Amino acid sequence: MGHVMVPERLLEIVQQNSEKAYPQIIMDEASYPYLFHLSDIRQNLIAFLPVTKQMHVLERNAGCGALTGKLLSMALHVTAAVESMEEAEILRARYKDADNLTVSVISDADTGTEKNVLYRDQTYDMILIAGEFSRYQKELSCMREHLADSGKLYVADANRLGLKYFAGCQEEYRGGYFTGLENYDENPRIFTADEGDVKPRVYTRKEYEQILKEAGFPEIYVYYPYPDHKFPACIYSDEYLPGKGELSDNRRNFDRDRVQLFDEKRVFDTVLAEGLFGELTNSFLIEAGNKTEEKRVIYSKYSNERARQFAIRTDICKNTDGEKNVKKYALYPEGKEHICHMEMAYERLTSCYEDGRDKIAFCACHTKNDVSVSAFDSGTTLQDVMERALEANQTELVKNILDDYAKRIMEYGGKKRFLLTEDFKKVFGEVDFTEEPEAVDTCDIDMIFANILIPKGSENKIGQAKWTVIDYEWTFFFPVPKLFVLYRALYFAYYQIMGGRGTSLDELLASYGIDQTLKEQFGRMEENFQAYLGKGNVPVRNMQRVMGTKIIPFEQLTDQDTKCAKTEEKIQNEPAGVRKILYHIDRQEYQDGSVVCSGWALAKTWSGKILPVDIKAVMQDGTAVTAELARYARTDVADALKLRRACDVNNWGFDCVFVAPREERWKLVFSLGKRSAEYCYRNE
Q1: Which one of 18, 213, 464, 653 has the largest count of C-beta atoms within 10 Å of its C-beta?
Q2: Which residues contact 339 (CB under 8 A, 6 or more apart)?
Q3: Distance of CA 501 to CAs 300, 494, 633, 653, 654, Å?
Q4: Is the pLDDT of residue 10 over 60?
Q5: pLDDT tens, position by position, 482-507
Q6: Which pLDDT value is given to residue 196?
Q7: CB-based contact 58:126 (threshold 8 Å)
Q8: From start to end of 245-303, where are the E strands?
Q9: Three-class DSSP category at 329
Q10: How far apart are alpha carbons 629 and 558 in whole angstroms?
Q11: Long-range contacts at 455-461 (CB < 8 A, ≥ 24 apart)
C-alpha cells in the first residue's frame, strides 16, 4: 500500500517478533517505513468491511502485509499480490502460520491482463486496492470481469483536492507543495498515464468515480477515512458526516516536512457547514459493485491505541429499513471481557441512579455474540450545546449547563462515603484525602459532556432536560469520589470546549468545590488511569514528533526572521541587556507519551523593556529534544504584573509539547541574551 521503502531489517524483524512487539520496534526505530509497514492502525481502513469466512479476497498492492493479517482473519482465502520477491518473502514469514494465504509476485512486466496469473480462471468476492490506485487502473475492467455477482471492489487512496494539501502538506507520492492541486502539470482530462510513466498520482472524487464507471462499475459508495487512508481513526460516510470540531487530528506528516498555512480544524468546520466535505476530505475508500443499497456500516471509530484488552471498534450500522444501531467490537480476543462488561455496567448504573431516573438515564445495551449492541440516539450532546453557546457568546447558558451538571453528579447515584479498595488502587493508585469525599459505588468516570445527550430542542431548558448517557465504557464497580467525575468533566470542558481560555482551570475547579489539593490528587488519579489503559506508548497521532519531521507555521515563514532580528537588536541596544527572566508553569501533564507544559515566560531588561524569550526542552543528559511550541497573548499576566506600557508585543503564553518517557527527568530552559532560567522536572 503506497510506495514506501522496505527497511533492510524488516524481514529479520517479522521472523523474530510477534505483532505484540511491533509498537516498541516502531518507537525504537523512529523511522516512517517501520511505522508504515508494522503499525496495526493501518488495519482500521478495512476492519469494518463486510468480509466473511466464505469469501475469497484479492489484495492488489499488498506490500509487506500491513493489511493482509486482518484480511486473513476475516476471509476464507486471501491472494496477496506483491511486486518483488523481497515483499513476498516478508509476507510469507510474517504470516507463516496462515493456511489461507497465497502470495503472488506480479512484476510491472506482468501487469498485462493476458499475462496476469491473478485473473486466470479466478473469481473473487472482494478485490482491494489500497494505495497507488493509478498504477492498477488499467486492470479495472479485468477485475470487474473476475468479481463474483455480488462481489465488491474497494479502492483506497488520497484525494487530489484534500484539505491537507491546501494547508501545506506535500503531495502523497511525488512530493512537493501543491503538486496534486495543480494536477501534476498534466491535462486534467487525461486520467490514464502513459505506459512508461510509473509515478503514481491521485484523483478528485469525480475523477475516481468517472474512472470506475468507465471500467464497468455502475454503483459506487464512498467512505471518508480520517485523518487519511493510511492511518485512519474514523471512517465517515455521506450518511454519517463529522460533527463540528471533530476533525482536530491533523498532525500527520510522518514522512515529510510541511508548512501549516491555516488551522485545518477550523477550516474543516467551514467545509462541513458548506456541504463540501465529500470534495475536500483527505482520502477516500470507495466501494464499487452491483449492489450498494444494502445493510451497511455508515460510521466506524477505532479506540485501539490502548492495551489490547481494552481496544475496541464502534460502528453505526444502518439496516435496509433505515433503522440504525450502535455496535462495539473487541479488536483482539483479549478484549471480549471488556465488551461483555458494558451490559453489566448498564444494568448496575441504571440501578445505582434509580434515585435520579427522571434526570439521568443510560442508553440500553445488550451483548450478542461478543458484540455490544445498543439503539442509535439522535439527540444533541451537551458538548455541542456548549460549543454553539460559546460561539454565540451565550456564556450564561454555558454556566447554567455546568451548574446543572455539578448538581446532578453530586445529588444522584446514592450518597456513600469513599472507601479505598485494592481494585481502586489497581486503576487509580494510592490516594490520601484530608477529608473523606462522597462517592458512588458504581461509577462511570467518563460521564463527560460529549457522552451525554439531551433531546433536540431542549437546549434552553437545561434544568428540565433528561440526560441519556451514551458511553459508559469506563464504569467501575467500586467506590469512586463523585468529585473526580466532576473534575474530569470540567477538565475536558476547559481544554476541549472552552479552549483553555478565559478564567483559569484552578478558578473553574474551585468554583465547584475542587481546591488545589484535590486537583493534584485527581490529576495523579487520571495519570494512573491512563497508564492502566496502556497508553504509555506514543499514539500514531503523535508519531510526527518521534519521526522528527517539521511543521512550519505560516507566521514563522513570514516574520520569524524579522522578529528575531528585532529582538536581538533590542537586546544589543539595551545599555546592560537582560536583567532577569520570569516564568510560571500553569499546566504540566503526561499525555499519550508526550509531555504537555503550559505557562508564560518573559525577559525584563535593565531599562524596563519586556521581551519574549527562547524556550528549549532538554533531557537530563543535556540532549535538546524537538518540541512543538505555540505562543499566544497573556493579557492576564500583563495586567497582574502591570506590564502593558513596557512591551510592544504580548506573546508570553506558551504551550510546549515534546516526547519523553514518563520516568525521565527533563527541564525547560528559558533564555535571552546572556540570561537564562530553568524549570526542572523530576518524576517523584
Answers
A1: 653
A2: 312, 328, 329, 330, 367, 370, 371, 372
A3: 32, 8, 11, 11, 12
A4: yes
A5: 999 999 999 999 988 988 777 888 99
A6: 45
A7: yes
A8: 258-260, 283-289, 296-303
A9: strand
A10: 17
A11: 455/379, 455/380, 456/378, 456/379, 456/380, 459/380, 459/385, 459/388, 459/397, 460/397
